[in-house]
Write a structure and sequence with these properties.
The complex is a heterodimer of chains A (about 270) and B (about 325). Chain A contains ten helices and seven strands. By secondary structure, chain A is of the alpha/beta class. In chain A, the strands form two sheets. In chain A, strands 1-2-3-7-6 form a five-stranded parallel β-sheet, sandwiched between helices. In chain A, strands 4-5 form a two-stranded antiparallel sheet. In chain A, β6, α9 and β7 form a beta-alpha-beta unit. The longest helix of chain A is centred in the first third of the chain and has 22 residues. Chain A is globular. The two termini of chain A are about 35 Å apart. Chain B is globular and about 60 Å long. Chain B is of the alpha/beta class. Chain B contains 13 helices and 14 strands. The interface between A and B is medium-sized, with 33 and 29 residues.
Chain lengths: ~270, ~325
């Protein structure tokens, strides 16, 4: 694992997240930035993906259940070369393939249209069951937000995955501890989180979601028959100092000046100008 | 006229057996109602391709979507009230929005569920499903049509909602009948009254038409089993020919078959008066199926009396 390369990818993705949301004037930076390491790890190391064909049949499947983090998905797909880098600036604009929430029918590489929270795990289960039924080896990864776990369907699906012993499925929780209205602990507590998943029949591992070595440890947990959930402890807004740990940056766009300042400071390229 | 009785849900079970043998891509999902929805028939013969998701309808629909993403052909079944109400957001955002080839074969629709009562009598499902872009809505009139619809649904590349019933209904489809989405079937010659019905109400409408003919009023029955896509050509033809158009459904008047027809006919220059027969902004309640049809004014005789009154009102 080349962590230098992965760090570069994460940094590039953060720049694209800032640029695309600033250009759109709306969007969700906080929960996109918190996933930069998880997504770069998946797209550039862990997942079996084709270098140019996003629809390669043998690919592992990555479903972003927390669809509002679309900017980090588009950034990953752009860095992967599945769409032109400059296209991220069309985010949320009329006619764009980059919808406010991911639309699989518009952009190849988006595995499932998501956005209404709580649905991705059920879909990942069906996909994992369907692949297994066809004796295919492809793995399924699904990324959920921690606030999203307040949706009841997630727990219906958690039962299903355990019941059907879906050990070709890995769920990642972006555990940044914040949701729109504040701390998840204040809005509706999820604790004890790991124990809940264990009780639902899952293998559970908690990692630092910004450390590639720790992510590797999580993804390479010795598997038994159970589905695996990786609780990735993350910082909402990670990498943009004034956004870190601030719930208000869940769904607020940075200004173009703030974006410019960030790009200058991070050595990112301004792709549009 | 009355053919052999079969509930459309039983025909669904038969059709699944056929698909089990002839289409290896078909998988069936249920939410702990497999004995009632008749998916248990498939489960017994093809257990590896049957998935009981338990009492969790949102998860049922989502899981079906995953199977579709894996290149398979999922049929998801539960009662109509749960498939379209409990899991509406899943059907909208995970099935219809991404245009996935999921077949929602929902049983126990309408008043004819009977004694389970109003909480279980789905009278809004046609409305809920037909407003979704990409979603087709089919309502079989008898077992044969239900069977054909299920076979046809397996060939569709997008989502289909099939509304099935619990109550045995008489066969009305003629020998050699072939269901085609968007094609209605007319029984009888064009006349003064056209009765456009769907589902269990088609056989009831035939009795009404018979009673009208006995009174010297010419009447035909149209089985508008494909509510979406709607057979607008048939509708145009019928509207041009008849003097009174009647829509008949075991569903709320608002948003159902009648609404769909009127939406198309709204700007029709030669539109005849349209009498909408259905449940009028009320919930259902417990009772035997035929008792309930009577209570809500949906028996052949009650419909005959209302149509006769309309004919007088409009001096036909």
């Amino acid at each position: 694992m080349n962590t230098i390369l992965l760090k570069e990818k994460a940094q590039e993705m953060r720049c694209l997240i800032m640029e695309s949301i600033a250009e759109a004037g709306s969007g969700h930076p906080g929960g996109s930035l918190s996933l930069a390491e998880v997504m770069s790890y998946l797209y550039f190391y862990e997942a079996n993906l084709h270098e140019s064909d996003p629809l390669w049949p043998e690919r592992d499947r990555i479903i972003l259940s927390k669809g509002h983090a679309a900017p980090v998905l588009y950034a990953a797909l752009a860095c992967k070369g599945y769409l032109p880098i400059s296209e991220v600036r069309t985010l949320r604009k009329l006619g764009s393939r980059l919808q406010g929430h991911p639309d699989m029918r518009k952009l190849p590489g988006v595995e499932m249209s998501t956005g209404s929270l709580g649905q991705g795990l059920s879909i990942a289960n069906g996909l994992a069951l369907g692949l297994r039924l066809q004796r295919k080896e492809n793995r399924v990864f699904v990324i959920l937000g921690d606030g999203e776990l307040q949706e009841g369907q997630v727990w219906e699906a958690a039962l299903t995955a355990a019941h059907y012993r879906l050990n070709n499925l890995t769920a990642v929780i972006d555990n940044n501890g914040l949701q729109i209205d504040g701390l998840t602990a204040d809005v509706k507590s999820l604790q004890p989180l790991a124990e809940k998943w264990q009780a639902f029949g899952w293998q559970t591992v908690t990692v630092d979601g910004h450390s590639y070595h720790d992510l590797y440890r999580g993804f390479h947990t010795e598997r038994d028959e159970r589905p695996l959930v990786i609780i990735a402890r993350t910082v909402k807004g990670k990498g943009v100092s004034y956004m870190e740990h601030v719930a208000d940056w869940h769904g607020k766009a940075p200004s173009k000046e703030q974006c410019k300042e960030y790009l200058e400071k991070s050595g990112g390229e301004d792709n549009g100008r | 006229m009355a053919g052999k009785l079969e509930a459309t849900r039983d025909a669904y079970g038969r059709a699944l057996l056929y698909l089990g043998e002839h289409n290896p891509e078909v998988v069936v999902l249920d939410a702990d109602l497999s004995k009632s929805t008749k998916t248990a028939v498939f489960a017994a013969k093809y257990p590896a391709r049957f998935f009981n998701i338990g009492i969790s309808e949102a998860d049922l629909i989502g899981t079906a979507c995953g199977f579709a993403l894996a290149g398979l052909k999922p049929f998801a079944s539960t009662f109509a009230i749960f498939a379209t109400g409990r899991a509406y957001d899943q059907v909208r955002n995970s099935v219809a929005y991404p245009h996935l080839p999921v077949v929602i074969a929902a049983t126990h629709a309408g008043l004819t569920v009977g004694p389970d009562g109003g909480s279980h009598q789905s009278l809004e499902d046609i409305a809920l499903m037909r407003v979704l872009p990409h979603m087709q809505v089919w309502v079989p009139a008898d077992g044969e049509e239900a069977y054909q619809m299920i076979i046809a649904a397996a060939k569709e590349e997008g989502p289909v909602y099939v509304r099935l019933g619990r109550q045995p209904v008489p066969a009305v489809s003629p020998p050699g009948y072939n269901f085609v989405p968007g094609q209605a079937m007319r029984f009888g010659e064009a006349g003064d009254v056209a009765l456009i019905a769907c589902g269990v109400m088609v056989s009831e409408a035939m009795k009404t038409a018979e009673a009208l003919r006995e009174q010297g009023v010419s009447a035909s029955v149209i089985n508008m089993s494909s509510i979406k896509p709607l057979d607008t050509a048939m509708l145009d033809r019928v509207a041009a020919e008849c003097k009174l158009l009647v829509t008949i459904e075991e569903h709320q008047k608002a948003g159902g078959l009648g609404s769909a027809c009127l939406e198309h006919l709204a700007l029709h220059s030669a539109r005849p008066p349209v009498l909408l027969i259905g449940v009028d902004d009320r919930f259902g309640q417990s009772g035997e199926p035929l008792e309930l049809l009577g209570h809500y004014g949906l028996t052949a005789e009650q419909m005959f009396l209302r149509i006769r009154a309309s004919l007088e009102q409009f001096s036909v």
